[in-house]
Give the backbone structure.
Amino acid sequence: MTEKECFRCKLVTYDEIVEWTTDLAKKIRACNCKPTVIVGLTRGGWVPARLLCDLLGVKKLYAVKTEHWGVTANPNGKALLTQELNVDIEKEEVLLVDDITDTGESMSIAKAHLQDMGPEVLKCAALLHITHSKFLPDFYSVEVPEDNWAWFIFPWNRNEDLRTLIPKTLYEEKGVADIQKAFREQFQMNIPLEDVNITLGDLEAAGKVKRSGEKWTRA
Ligand code: AMP
């Protein structure tokens, strides 16, 4: 048996993503910022970057990748740039986009990388900005006070996050209904039983959990 980990999670809907990107586009236009290139900071910035291309009429969409939140809600050391940009952005007006600035490390190292490539203008945008972030994006839609920190389960990461979070409820063996109850208690979020079942099936196939009768444990 291990300790139970508790932190607040918040499920984000696609409607909220559309609302926040639309709001970001308005703020970007209001500052007379007219990007010619959008760079999505993957993987979290990929969908917002694509939506902003549509809203702002930008054809050139590229990606860079950083990593340091190894698994859901666990930062594992310093952020690393794991995919550099391989196109010329000299003389371009570049907008770097991510879903959230939390530690701010990812945005910070991605911006430094792009700056070295000599763009004419370089601005940064995030849907959500947590006030404790050491990096302040030029544009963001929602400011999240650090006391309201949550792990935001973005719609494009929902299954991956559930595969990480559900095993945290198995600090002792449990049936499906008790997993759902423990999830609510540990992460302050309701999940449908169907999602618990689907996730357990995926985790079982991956050898991460096992079933004995009606009960589940970590493998
Ligand atoms: P950062 O800590 O600002 O370097 O965050 C890097 C990336 O980790 C973000 O782009 C998100 O994809 C993910 N991330 C960090 N904090 C959160 C959070 N509170 N909720 C959801 N995703 C997060």
